[in-house]
């Protein structure tokens, strides 16, 4: 390993990379991959930072994302913590991938080919980077770079659906006993909320439907009033996006206009695979106690899982509770431990 790990990550954090504006950080990361000894490092047509290392038949994809949500977190080291937007979600996990790959033995690299993908637009509904590579790569194993904590392995993510509902109607005097457009839309929202609450009775967090009211607005255009809301849903494994759409349509009056987008299916991977076993053994070898996690959000795992039907987990340093917060940081000891865990796990996969 030729580059000091913390300095490499700090350099990535110092380059803003809000979704759609990842070019500068992609250039930085590909330059660092070349310096780390990757045989290939380039920016592909989608804008992803790509790297290849090794020449063996076993194909392993390490897919992280290099975009972030908006908002500045001043980059700094305080005590044993490195702060910055993306330290946890998810430049930290991707740099972890880069460094773990560079630490592999020559014997492992003769049996394995690593494909690194620093994907763009994961934080946007497009997931442009992940969608671009699904037809190009044919992995035997996949790791998704998301914060799990160095001792944890993420097996699943909820699905997603976004709804935009709109009601327009002719204007009338407020003295009339008639619901206006906004009131009709709020009645619809109340019915959806009641449906979700009924679905969630007796269910744990990963099995619940989550609703997130993202936007509500109302106004007047000419002689018509209108109201529009945008609602995000996180879907448990028992509810596919098309099933959720059917429920949401059933509660809507014919006067409402509904638009659905951002659909991703839920995903839950198997607990006992060569990949999970390799990670568990690596975690224990460093004094950790491995645990499995199931996330209530979504990730690029949801995008690629329908195409890559192989053992797949998400792994990376950091506390996901810090995602998108003004306090986002990764503990440096955990970041360094996660590099060792992944390096040892990849060695085991290659040499098994």
Automatic annotation (TrEMBL):
<dbReference type="GO" id="GO:0008270">
    <property type="term" value="F:zinc ion binding"/>
</dbReference>
<keyword id="KW-0028">Amino-acid biosynthesis</keyword>
<feature type="binding site">
    <location>
        <position position="123"/>
    </location>
    <ligand>
        <name>Zn(2+) 2</name>
    </ligand>
</feature>
<feature type="binding site">
    <location>
        <position position="89"/>
    </location>
    <ligand>
        <name>Zn(2+) 2</name>
    </ligand>
</feature>
<dbReference type="GO" id="GO:0050897">
    <property type="term" value="F:cobalt ion binding"/>
</dbReference>
<feature type="binding site">
    <location>
        <position position="324"/>
    </location>
    <ligand>
        <name>Zn(2+) 2</name>
    </ligand>
</feature>
<feature type="binding site">
    <location>
        <position position="65"/>
    </location>
    <ligand>
        <name>Zn(2+) 1</name>
    </ligand>
</feature>
<comment type="similarity">
    <text>Belongs to the peptidase M20A family. LysK subfamily.</text>
</comment>
<keyword id="KW-0862">Zinc</keyword>
<dbReference type="GO" id="GO:0016811">
    <property type="term" value="F:hydrolase activity, acting on carbon-nitrogen (but not peptide) bonds, in linear amides"/>
</dbReference>
<feature type="binding site">
    <location>
        <position position="89"/>
    </location>
    <ligand>
        <name>Zn(2+) 1</name>
    </ligand>
</feature>
<comment type="function">
    <text>Catalyzes the release of L-lysine from [LysW]-gamma-L-lysine.</text>
</comment>
<dbReference type="Pfam" id="PF01546">
    <property type="entry name" value="Peptidase_M20"/>
</dbReference>
<feature type="active site">
    <location>
        <position position="67"/>
    </location>
</feature>
<keyword id="KW-0963">Cytoplasm</keyword>
<feature type="active site" description="Proton acceptor">
    <location>
        <position position="122"/>
    </location>
</feature>
<keyword id="KW-0457">Lysine biosynthesis</keyword>
<dbReference type="InterPro" id="IPR050072">
    <property type="entry name" value="Peptidase_M20A"/>
</dbReference>
<keyword id="KW-0378">Hydrolase</keyword>
<protein>
    <recommendedName>
        <fullName>[LysW]-lysine hydrolase</fullName>
        <ecNumber>3.5.1.130</ecNumber>
    </recommendedName>
</protein>
<dbReference type="GO" id="GO:0005737">
    <property type="term" value="C:cytoplasm"/>
</dbReference>
<feature type="binding site">
    <location>
        <position position="146"/>
    </location>
    <ligand>
        <name>Zn(2+) 1</name>
    </ligand>
</feature>
<keyword id="KW-0170">Cobalt</keyword>
<dbReference type="GO" id="GO:0019878">
    <property type="term" value="P:lysine biosynthetic process via aminoadipic acid"/>
</dbReference>
<dbReference type="InterPro" id="IPR010175">
    <property type="entry name" value="LysK"/>
</dbReference>
<comment type="pathway">
    <text>Amino-acid biosynthesis; L-lysine biosynthesis via AAA pathway; L-lysine from L-alpha-aminoadipate (Thermus route): step 5/5.</text>
</comment>
<keyword id="KW-0479">Metal-binding</keyword>
<dbReference type="InterPro" id="IPR002933">
    <property type="entry name" value="Peptidase_M20"/>
</dbReference>
């Amino acid at each position: 390993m030729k580059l000091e790990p913390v300095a490499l990550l700090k350099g990535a954090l110092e380059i803003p990379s809000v979704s759609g504006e990842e070019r500068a950080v992609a250039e930085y990361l590909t330059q660092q991959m070349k310096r780390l000894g990757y045989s290939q490092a380039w920016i592909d047509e989608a804008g992803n930072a790509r790297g290849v290392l090794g020449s063996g038949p076993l194909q392993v994809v390490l897919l992280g994302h290099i975009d972030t949500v908006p908002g500045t977190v001043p980059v700094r080291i305080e005590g044993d913590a490195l702060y910055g937007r993306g330290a946890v979600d998810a430049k930290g996990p991707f740099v972890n991938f880069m460094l773990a790959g560079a630490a592999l033995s020559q014997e492992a690299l003769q049996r394995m080919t690593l494909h690194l993908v620093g994907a763009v637009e994961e934080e946007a509904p497009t997931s442009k980077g992940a969608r671009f590579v699904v037809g190009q790569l044919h992995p035997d194993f996949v790791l998704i770079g998301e914060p799990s904590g160095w001792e944890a392995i993420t097996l699943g993510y909820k699905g997603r659906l976004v709804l935009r509902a709109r009601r327009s109607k002719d204007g009338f005097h407020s003295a009339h006993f008639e619901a206006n457009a906004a009131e009709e839309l709020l009645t619809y929202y109340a019915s959806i909320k009641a449906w979700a609450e009924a679905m969630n009775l007796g269910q744990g967090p990963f099995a619940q439907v989550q609703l997130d009211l993202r936007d509500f607005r109302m106004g007047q255009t000419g002689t018509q009033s209108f109201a529009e809301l945008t609602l995000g849903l996180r879907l448990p494994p028992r509810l596919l996006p098309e099933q959720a759409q059917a429920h949401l349509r059933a509660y809507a009056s014919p006067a409402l206009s509904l638009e659905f987008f951002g659909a991703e299916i839920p995903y839950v991977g198997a607990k006992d695979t060569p990949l999970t076993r390799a990670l568990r053994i690596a975690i224990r070898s460093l004094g950790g106690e491995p645990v499995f996690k199931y996330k209530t959000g979504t990730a690029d795992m949801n995008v690629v899982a329908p195409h890559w039907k192989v053992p797949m987990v998400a792994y990376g340093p950091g506390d996901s509770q810090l995602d998108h917060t003004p306090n986002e940081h990764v503990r440096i000891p955990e970041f360094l431990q996660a590099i060792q865990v992944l390096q040892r796990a990849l060695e085991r996969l290659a040499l098994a």
